[in-house]
Specification:
Blueprint (H helix, E strand, L loop, with lengths): L1 H15 L1 E5 L10 E5 L6 H6 L6 E6 L6 H9 L2 E4 L6 H12 L3 E4 L19 H9 L3 E8 L6 E6 L15 H21 L1
Parallel strand pairs: 1-7, 2-5, 2-6, 3-4, 3-5
Antiparallel strand pairs: 6-7
Helix pairs in contact: 4-5, 5-6
């Protein structure tokens, strides 16, 4: 199912968008990794993952799983539910388990769509930093640029993986985690500045 959806997405994007990717060599062929991206529009998770050879697992808002169609399809695409607006320990544990099993976890740290005109208006959530400090896997920054109007140009840029410097068994404060999340987003937006 996941491979079929990725193939379908590639076909649709080729027909309706001028879609390009850059930096595919920065995606490790094996081992756990967190792929973090900016979040300008609705199709971000599809644009980010459709040309990646490995399955990218995503956190998806719990409300989507209440729809029977999505509840059937999303898990087959590697997605799992997360409760927004509250500390969801179960989803954090699921995310860490996915990473420890050697898979890629996709996270959009801003948590909600930013749009294209004012991309830095939303502060990232602390969840990505919490997962990164616990899982100790590389983070792959990914940046989406362009617009989602039909036939517009969309580009995904994958940056070089990097590690979060974290102390063993340290309990980080929320402010410290948000600072780490901000550092991650800075690396993502730097890719847009360098494009």
């Amino acid at each position: 199912m996941a491979e079929f959806v990725k193939f379908l997405a590639r076909v649709i994007f080729k027909i309706f968008y001028r879609f390009k990717v850059e930096g595919m060599e920065n995606i490790p062929l094996k081992g756990g990794a967190i792929m973090c991206s900016n979040h300008p529009g609705t199709l971000d998770m599809f644009f980010i993952a459709c040309k990646v050879k490995r399955l990218v697992h995503y956190m998806a808002k719990e409300e989507l799983f209440k729809n029977p169609v999505f509840a059937y399809i999303l898990p087959k695409l590697g997605a799992f539910p997360v409760k927004r607006g509250k500390g969801d320990l179960d989803s954090i544990k699921t995310a860490i388990k996915i990473l420890k099993s050697g898979n890629i976890l996709g996270i959009l740290p801003e948590g909600t769509r930013t749009g294209y005109n004012n991309p830095r208006k939303i502060k990232p959530k602390s969840g990505v930093a919490l997962i990164a400090t616990k899982a100790k896997v590389p983070i792959i920054p990914a940046a989406i640029t362009g617009g989602y109007k039909l036939f517009s140009k969309v580009k995904v840029i994958y940056g070089k993986p990097f590690y979060i410097s974290s102390e063993e068994n340290k309990k980080y404060t929320r402010d410290e985690l948000i600072e780490i999340s901000n550092d991650i987003m800075n690396k993502i937006y730097k890719l847009l500045e360098e494009k």
